[in-house]
Amino acid sequence: MFFNLKSAFLVGLAATAYASPILPVDPLAPQNIEARSIEARAQAKDVDCGGRQFTAQDIKSTIAASKTAQDKQYKDSSYKFPKPYGNGEKFFNSPSQLYEYPLMSPTFTGKGKYEIYRVIMNENYNYMGSLYHTSDMSNSFHKCVNVEDQEKEAKKNEKEEQKDDKKAGKGKGGKKGH
């Protein structure tokens, strides 16, 4: 008639597990473990790399070209890219190996001259971000900025300046007291 504490706990645990099973949104959908990875991935958006702009399509084409070049690299050692990116500046928080590939328009094919701009991706070809080499001799990188984020920041700064102007009496009314 009386339950002991252990039995009550086990019954409660079983009831909780039965009442709230963990299921995917669509149980019939194929399960892609890669897509559910907790590693942060960036959306390919238009970027500004120190004044040079690239489109999201440029980035997607670059990643596709890196896959092709990677396949060719096994047969022909003259392909220099994709190559491991060391992440010395700690721009990306990734547990997996990162790779760099030249970001150009038209797309770099794996051989020939390349510029200072790079797409960074993980070992599964997921886009992590874009960088460009600095002009000094340090061989370091700067992170490219999403154009959309840059525009939002400019609008935010403009609104703040307008607020400051109104507070200082420089708003629409002109000078006060005249």
TrEMBL record:
Sorted keywords for this record are:
Disulfide bond, Endonuclease, Hydrolase, Lyase, Nuclease, Signal
The keyword Nuclease is annotated on this UniProt entry: yes
Protein's name in the database: Uncharacterized protein
Q: Which InterPro entries match?
A: N1-like (IPR000026), Ribonuclease/ribotoxin (IPR016191)
Which is an annotated GO molecular function term of this record?
hydrolase activity
> Span of the secretion signal?
1-19
Q: Does the keyword Hydrolase apply?
A: yes
Question: Biased-composition ranges for Basic and acidic residues?
Answer: 152-168
Q: What is the lineage of its organism?
A: Eukaryota, Fungi, Dikarya, Ascomycota, Pezizomycotina
Q: Compositionally biased, Basic residues: which spans?
A: 169-178
Q: Organism source for this protein?
A: Aspergillus cristatus
Per the record, which residues fall in region Disordered?
A: 148-178
